[in-house]
């Protein structure tokens, strides 16, 4: 199921990140609570009145580039329009209408993407106290919606309008037994070439110009009576100069592909190593509970000795510590080196992703883990785990009934995860633990 994307755009210092944080209900644009995930996140799942959507904060885009600010704002807006289902165009009601606001509006008026004009930093909703508010009507984008993102004023009314403009979430019509494979990664790492190499024929466009693939392309195919769908994703649409801000925007199409997938092939460029963008994309696949394989492409271009592969793998594990469960495969889509192993690994991690452990076996493992390494007892109160059961698969999700969920430390959950992996493999899939008090068991 693919969630609609809402992008927040506007010139610097209008409060885009503040609005982003207000909508998602946490300061995720600044602080990431889960260890190992990159902190400069640009996206977060949000919900309002039962409707879920992906919110994208363009405030993370670097404006310290060679081009003028107005040019970057214009470029940012164009990218947001291309990727999003709805755009929130934020302006500053205190400073009034500026030239860079008009630059963005010129682009937004020429698109079919729905736009909501949001006038931020409105402390008093009287027009007498905000005469400059009327200036924004001249942008031709409808009535400005006054909000104070910092104080949360009128953001509920804004979200009411957001959900009325969002498209419905789209479910895939594929059979449940079909393995949907998302080929994701930064622009120009060889995603389309990998798809072509797997299929053995030219089903999608291949080019060394980032952005050749315009939209996600689904390619159903069969191998050994197994059914698959390859979802190839474009990195960028523009074929002209490649901007740093454009590079950051390539994550958006990957989000949609990951949402729809069972297995994510996270493609990295062997010559460039792990970048922040790689971590951002992989982090989303991890958080969405997808089975994952790290594909190191262009391995044929690397000078190697007997230790190169192990050194490279160690660096990946260090840089992407949150996804150490994902197998690493070194390939060349161009020469087809080890490409035959991709689907073998897809089959394997898909099985692991769907693995169900019998309740008796699961509780035996938990008891043995407790005996071998008892939970810590902060302030003299020790965590007790009474019972465990598997709630679901894809990813494997386990409920632990305990005396007090707050006594569970992250490090001890990691220990339990490691014990599960030692006993049952579970390679390529995240593991989810949910904690409940024992009194919650019947509910």
Main attributes?
GMP Synthetase, Chain A, domain 3; globular; 12 helices; alpha/beta; 3 domains; six-stranded mixed β-sheet; 443 residues
What does this structure look like?
With 443 residues, the protein is of the alpha/beta class. Helix content is 31%, strand content 21%. It has a 6-stranded mixed beta sheet with strand order 2-3-1-4-5-6, sandwiched between helices. It has a 6-stranded mixed beta sheet with strand order 8-9-7-10-11-12, sandwiched between helices. α7 packs parallel to α8 (276-287) and α11 packs across α12 (410-424). The longest helix has 15 residues, at 69-83. Mean pLDDT is 81; it is low at 27-41, 60-66, 202-215 and 235-246.
Question: Secondary structure elements and their pairing?
Answer:
Layout: E1 5-9, H1 16-24, E2 43-48, E3 51-57, H2 69-83, E4 86-92, H3 99-108, E5 115-120, E6 145-146, H4 155-165, E7 179-185, H5 191-199, E8 217-223, E9 226-232, H6 244-249, H7 251-260, E10 263-269, H8 276-287, E11 291-297, H9 308-319, E12 328-330, H10 340-353, H11 359-372, E13 385-392, E14 397-402, H12 410-424, E15 432-437
Parallel strand pairs: 1-3, 1-4, 4-5, 5-6, 7-9, 7-10, 10-11, 11-12, 14-15
Antiparallel strand pairs: 2-3, 8-9, 13-14
């Amino acid at each position: 199921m693919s969630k609609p994307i809402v992008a927040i755009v506007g010139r610097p210092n209008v409060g885009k990140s503040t609005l982003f944080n207000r909508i998602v209900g946490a300061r995720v644009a600044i602080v990431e609570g889960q260890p190992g995930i990159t902190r400069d996140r640009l996206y977060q799942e949000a919900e309002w009145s039962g409707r879920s959507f992906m919110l994208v904060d363009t405030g993370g885009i670097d404006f310290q580039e060679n081009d003028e600010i107005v040019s970057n704002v214009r470029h940012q807006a164009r990218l947001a329009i291309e990727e999003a289902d709805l755009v929130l165009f934020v302006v500053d009601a205190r400073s009034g209408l500026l030239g860079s606001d008009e630059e963005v509006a010129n682009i937004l008026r020429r698109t079919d993407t729905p736009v909501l004009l949001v006038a931020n930093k409105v402390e008093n909703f009287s027009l007498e106290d905000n005469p400059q508010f009327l200036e924004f009507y001249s942008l031709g984008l409808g009535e400005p919606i006054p909000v104070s993102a910092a104080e949360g004023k009128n953001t509920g009314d804004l979200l009411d309008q957001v959900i009325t403009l969002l498209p419905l979430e789209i479910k895939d019509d594929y059979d449940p037994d079909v393995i949907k494979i998302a080929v994701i990664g930064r622009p120009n790492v060889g995603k389309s070439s990998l798809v072509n190499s797997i299929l053995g024929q030219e089903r999608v466009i291949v080019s060394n110009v980032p952005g050749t693939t315009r939209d996600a392309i689904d390619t159903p195919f069969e191998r050994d009576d197994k059914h698959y769908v390859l979802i190839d994703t474009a990195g960028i649409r523009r074929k002209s100069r490649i901007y740093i801000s454009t590079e950051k925007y390539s994550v958006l199409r990957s989000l949609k592909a990951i949402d729809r997938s069972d297995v994510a092939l996270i493609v990295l460029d062997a010559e460039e190593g792990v970048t922040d963008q790689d971590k951002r994309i992989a982090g989303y696949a991890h958080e969405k509970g997808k089975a994952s394989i790290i594909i190191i492409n262009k391995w044929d271009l690397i000078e190697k000795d007997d230790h190169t592969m192990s050194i490279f793998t160690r660096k990946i594990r260090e840089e992407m510590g949150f996804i150490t469960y994902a197998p690493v495969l070194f390939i060349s889509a161009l020469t087809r080196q080890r490409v035959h192993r991709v689907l073998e690994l897809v089959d394997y991690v898909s099985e692991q992703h769907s693995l169900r452990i019998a309740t008796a076996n699961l509780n035996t493992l938990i008891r043995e883990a407790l005996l071998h390494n008892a939970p810590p007892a902060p302030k003299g109160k020790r965590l007790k785990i009474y019972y465990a059961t598997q709630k679901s698969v894809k990813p494997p999700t386990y409920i632990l009934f305990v005396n007090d969920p707050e006594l569970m430390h992250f490090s001890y959950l990691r220990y339990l995860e490691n014990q599960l992996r030692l006993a049952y493999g579970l390679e390529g899939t995240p593991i989810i633990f949910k904690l409940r008090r024992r009194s919650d068991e019947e509910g």
